[in-house]
Write a structure and sequence with these properties.
single chain, 9-stranded antiparallel beta sheet, 8-stranded antiparallel beta sheet
């Protein structure tokens, strides 16, 4: 028999501008617990029917055997008839067992298909939520002649213009600086532009070469004047050295006395303000991102743009600018003149002939769409890159704020989590958030996987436990992997530990993130709160938090079908006591870099990592299992959040890695671990 049961646990989302899509998501999700209970109950009933039919079949087999033996001992007409009768009963019992199995399998397939369909429905709704502008998915990479063109909007009256720009002279061409511009007519001098917003550089001692950088950079904004020979206003920012994403805002505001003033903000701080001295131009020419065509000719940028918006009203309060620079605007607001997200998802038509113009969508109510202009041979994949400007992205915001508390101090009343085993004989990474909650050091947090119950420590696949450090409230984590394959090897002293390593010390109290890994080059590391000082990752001998394994140690690591147990360690000497809290369990098939570990230390994993249902085979993905421990309080299970391809599940290539909670499920609040507005 096989047990096919899919669980998708998606909690309610509270995000700006979600509208009906979030309501649909919440409504659809509210039916899931009842659906799961009903389907699981039905399948359990059919499973019991299969077991009952099998027991009846075994009974009839014994009766047939007895009748055959009676006939052989006394071959009469009566005993022969008894053999025939019992044979017919056996056939009926076999038919009943086959029918029960078929019913069970049909119910399993039906449940799987229903729940896969349910998951696809939620995915469609989630995509709808995302499409309403909840997060910054992509940015536009202007380079090698690629630029974007947006329709003209009115910049007369008061307004606020905002944009994110990414420029790093160490990565981008220092002579191809970011520029956004709108001219009255192509090829005119600067004073005939409606506006220019550009990054400018100061003198370079190395000269105008690819390797030479400017000594300093500053933001420059001006609007040409229709009644003067110069500009209506010219704003200069402070000198600085750019190194990545920058938020730039320009506002034009008229006070009660009729005085119009321009303001320049960089990263939420006001850098310059000046009164307008002339009238402004208006134009039907497009606004260009990454290209300018003036009396000096055509110039291109090498940089990234994201989240360009122009709002009614001139905002002069830098606190207001800073408060929403990391969040998307309400797309239904009538006060948005244009809103370019650069998040379109169009495939390049094969019939187009270069140069190729692609739609640039305006997300405001005005729908003043523009287009991308790409040189010959370039596709959208060459100019679309992941954006990191917003912390409140739908894929990285906490769905809820709970962990689990485990009190495992009584062997007769055990309380721990068991999750399916994993192959740890190659490269891997395990991650946990752990906290000690007991008064005694004997109840420190523990995670283990044994090869058999109550064996010696050197026969465990691994043990991870918090232990005392050098004193003064300092602790450390010890990680060990056994190599003894039998009690005889242990007794003979021919085996021991394949891996023994300790973390750097940390304060015993509070939550700590623990990551343990072995790399493809057989280097073992243990990070606590993302920290491991490891001599550049190439140690030649044992050190704090890092150790290179020799060939023999690397090859003798153990494997077991027993579960990985969080909050339990039962060896040959004692049943260890544990009082702890746990959250965010992650198992990887690869050794995550320190940068990767730190990047998601205080964030849930993005949807792109754990949604593998569109993969050819989930077995090729790095993320093996992901437990957020956010199931309903009355659920005895912990569900792996990884969404695997349904075909892989049905054909047996992938399994559902559902775990169990032994004992009470006690939820605890730990919102402080995850930051809602994580800054880039």
């Amino acid at each position: 028999m096989r047990s096919l049961f899919v669980v998708l646990c998606v909690a309610s989302l509270a995000v700006c501008a979600a509208g009906d899509a979030t309501s649909d998501l919440n409504t659809a999700h509210s039916t899931l617990p009842a659906d799961l209970t009903s389907k699981e109950s039905s399948q359990a009933t059919l499973s019991a029917s299969v077991s009952s039919a099998f027991s009846a079949l075994v009974t009839k087999q014994a009766e047939v055997k007895a009748a055959q033996e009676a006939y052989l001992a006394n071959p009469t007409t009566s005993t022969a008839a008894a053999v025939d009768t019992k044979g017919a009963e056996l056939k009926s019992a076999l038919d009943a067992w086959n029918a029960a199995q078929q019913n069970y399998m049909a119910e399993s397939d039906s449940n799987l298909n229903d729940l896969v369909s349910y998951r696809e429905k939620l995915t469609d709704i989630l995509n709808g939520v995302q499409s309403q502008g909840l997060n910054a998915k992509d940015a536009f990479y202007a380079h090698d002649g690629a630029y974007a063109s947006a329709k003209s909007i009115s910049l007369l009256g008061d307004f606020t213009l905002e944009v994110w720009v990414n420029f790093d002279p160490a990565k981008h061409h220092h002579l191809q600086l970011p520029v956004i511009s709108q001219a009255r007519v192509a090829g005119v001098d600067a004073t005939k532009f409606v506006f220019q917003l550009k990054l400018r550089g100061g003198p370079s001692s190395a000269g105008e070469t690819r390797t030479g950088e400017f000594n300093y950079y500053f933001w420059d904004f001006f609007m040409g004047s229709s009644d003067l020979s110069g500009t209506a206003v010219h704003l200069f920012g402070n000198e600085f050295q750019p190194s990545g994403w920058m938020h730039v805002a320009v506002s034009v505001s008229t006070d009660g006395d009729g005085v119009t003033r321009g303001y320049l903000f960089v990263n939420g701080l006001q850098e310059y303000s000046k009164v307008f001295t002339g009238a402004r131009w208006s134009s039907s020419e497009d606004i260009l991102f990454g290209m300018i065509n003036d009396n000096n000719g055509v110039q291109y940028s090498d940089c990234l743009f994201d989240e360009f918006r122009v709002l009614d009203g001139g905002e002069t309060d830098e606190a207001v600018i800073a408060s929403h620079m990391h969040s998307a605007s309400d797309l239904l607001s009538a006060g948005i003149r244009t809103y370019l997200r650069f998040d379109e998802s169009y495939d390049m038509p094969s019939t187009l002939v270069p140069p190729m113009d692609m739609k640039l969508a305006d997300s405001s109510l005005h729908r003043a769409d523009g287009f991308y202009v790409l040189p010959s041979g370039m596709t959208l994949s060459d100019v679309r890159v992941p954006s990191t400007i917003y912390g409140r992205e739908i894929d990285t915001t906490r769905f809820s704020d709970v962990g689990l508390s485990l009190t495992n101090t009584d062997i007769n009343n055990q309380n721990y989590i068991g999750i399916p085993s994993a192959d740890l004989t190659g490269q891997f990474t395990m991650e946990f958030w752990l906290k000690h909650t007991g008064a005694s050091t004997a109840t420190y947090p523990k995670v283990s996987q044994a090869t058999r119950e109550g064996s010696t420590r050197d026969r465990f696949v691994f043990t991870l436990e918090m232990v005392d450090g050098s004193g003064g409230g300092q602790c450390k984590y010890e990680f060990k992997m056994g190599s003894c394959r039998s009690a005889a090897e242990h007794t003979a002293g021919t085996c021991g530990y394949a891996v023994e390593i300790s973390s750097e010390e940390f304060a015993c109290s509070g939550w700590h993130h623990v990551a343990v890994q072995i790399t493809s080059t057989n280097v073992a590391k243990i990070f606590v709160d993302g920290v491991c000082t490891d001599n550049d990752g190439e140690p030649t001998s044992a050190g704090v938090c890092v150790k290179r394994l020799d060939a023999s140690d690397a090859s003798v690591r153990l494997i077991s079908l027993r579960p990985i147990e969080i909050g339990r360690l039962y060896d040959d000497s004692s049943y260890e006591q544990v009082q702890m809290e746990v959250d965010e369990i992650r198992l990887w098939r690869s050794a995550r870099s320190q940068e990767q570990i730190v990047a998601h230390l205080h964030r849930t994993l993005p949807h792109t990592l754990w949604d593998q249902q569109k993969s050819v085979s989930a077995s090729t993905e790095d993320l093996l299992a992901y437990y957020t421990l956010e199931e309903p309080v009355d659920s005895p299970r912990v569900y792996d959040r990884v969404l695997r391809p349904p075909a892989d599940i049905k054909n047996g290539n992938e399994k559902l890695l559902t775990g169990l909670i032994h004992g009470a499920r006690t939820q605890v609040a730990r919102a402080s671990l995850f930051v809602q507005n994580f800054q880039p």
